[in-house]
Specification:
The complex is a heterodimer of chains A (about 150) and B (about 80).
Chain A: E1 2-5, H1 11-19, E2 27-34, E3 44-49, H2 53-68, E4 73-79, E5 81-83, E6 88-96, H3 99-115, E7 119-125, E8 128-132, H4 136-143
Parallel strand pairs in A: 1-4
Antiparallel strand pairs in A: 2-6, 3-5, 3-7, 4-6, 7-8
Chain B: E1 2-6, H1 9-14, E2 18-21, H2 28-38, H3 40-47, E3 52-55, E4 58-60, E5 71-75
Parallel strand pairs in B: 1-5
Antiparallel strand pairs in B: 1-2, 3-4, 3-5
Classes of the chains: A alpha+beta (about 150), B alpha+beta (about 80).
Amino acid sequence: MISLTDQGFDPGPLLSGFCRGRAETGAVASFTGLARAEGGETRILELEAYPGFTEAQIGAIAETARTRFDLQDLMIVHRIGQIAPGEPVVFVATAASHRRAAFEACDYLMDYLKSRAPFWKKEHGPEGARWVEPRTQDHEDIARWA
Amino acid sequence: MARVLLFGRLSDIAGWREKTLEPAPARLSELRALLAADDAVLGEALAAPGVQVALDQVLVRDDAALSARSEVAFLPPMSGG
């Protein structure tokens, strides 16, 4: 399941729900990304998406992950709109027969969400606003999967 | 009529998010030229490396023919998560 939401969410119930009824799964890994305050530099994080296109692109990333890691299931929830420091921005869960695949798929999905999914991120701070672009680290992270 | 959408920093540079061009230009290159003639700073930003184009929600790398109802989106480097 892939969803974009402009509402805050609690990762706990999402993970519980994702784990339910999985007698044959064996391994579930999850990741939750939280908005950072950057020592007061970021008061609000604003995330923009391209409705329709963003979901489709994430869907394509998810399908690649599903095949590559032989996943049984996956879940991606991503915030859009205005997000306060400490609030969850993204939640990813993966289900596989064994832990390695579940861990790696989670890592892979996050690397692709960081710099290949159509989101644009603006940090609003005391000195104004600035657009965030992928860092060298993000490009290095994604290069690991080539 | 072509619909043009700008995302991220591009909409801040232009001062708009969405615009319709009537009549629709025949090609993506003509649409770029029209936007650049109107706003040279935006034209340059649209041509910058790392800016991708989606035509009717499909990424295109080169010049492309537009239809009367094309949706053209300019996408600066993406940053999610």
